[in-house]
Amino acid sequence: MESHSKVDAPVADYQPRPRVLVVEDETNVAEVVERYLRRDGVDTTVVHDGQSALDYLSSDGVDLVVLDVMLPVMDGLEVTRRMRAQNDATPVIMLTARDTESDVVLGLGLGADDYVGKPFSPAELMARVHAVLRRGTRASSPGPVIRAGALVISSEYRTVELNGTSIELTAKEFDLLFFLASNPGRVYSREQLLNHVWDYSHPGDTSTVTVHIRRLRAKIEEDASRPRHVKTVWGVGYKFDA
Ligand code: CA
Fold it and tell me: How many whole angstroms from 16 Cα to the centroid of ligand 1?
């Protein structure tokens, strides 16, 4: 009889791999980019037009979008414009055709973080990708202690103090607070919080996020009905105000 070997398998540490969305309609370019990203341990998803990119981003958070400018249905500039209009601050690296300086200027003006001119070497693109991902990692690892008003959050000791008084949080409440506080001002949808703070075993149960936000506010806000730190952004999600 076959034994239940899976039961004995070690539980993998929760260590999220960086997630990148590649938006490129040229199949051969998309394949090369995907191969290099995967080789570097990046969780990679490829879509082939602008609308599919927005659809994907509205349900799933990623750490970075590699976005071609020339795309069917909706071009990369419009994708970036709409992302930023929806307060989606996910970093964007644009792939621009050579000699289209206006696309570069426009793209960066719309909120793209970097660009690579086509034709590009995969090595160059990967260097940009890792640079942007490192910036993102730094932003979410601001050091052992975060201070925001009367709130002191220690990642090292996983403790929270409000006006010098220790606050008891559950593990997930702490993770949620620490994640939001590590990225102050950035708006996250419930789906994105579910992806970042929980693991992937909670398919789409965004009410979990709502419940944890409510409990968190009851504990860390001086007036939970008028939260100072964990703010609701109507129709979008939540953000942390320092
Ligand atoms: Ca293209």
Answer: 30
Rounded CA-CA distance 59/57 in Å is 5
Q: How far is the CA of 68 from the centre of ligand 1 (A)?
A: 6
| Whole-number Å distance between alpha carbons of 26 and 49 | 10
Q: Write the DSSP string, 46-89.
A: EESSHHHHHHHHHHS--SEEEEESS-SSS-HHHHHHHHHHTT--
What is the per-residue pLDDT for 13?
42
Distance 105 CA to ligand 1 centre (A): 18
Instruction: List Cβ<8 Å contacts ≥24 apart for 223-226.
Output: none
Q: Report CA(118)–ligand 1 centroid distance (Å).
A: 10
Task: Say what angle helices 207-220 and 171-182 make with each other, to 10 degrees.
Answer: 90
Mean pLDDT of 37-43: 92
Please, which residues have CB less than 5 A from ligand 1, an ion?
Answer: 25, 68, 70
- Map residue 127 onto helix, strand or coil: helix
Question: pLDDT per residue over 213-231, tens digit each?
Answer: 999 999 999 888 899 999 9
66 alpha carbon to ligand 1 midpoint, in Å? 12
What are the structural domains, with CATH classification, of the chain? Answer: 19-137 (3.40.50.2300), 145-240 (1.10.10.10)
The reported pTM is 0.53
Residue 157: Cβ within 10 Å count:
9
- Closest by CA to 240, choosing from 149, 113, 112, 137, is 149
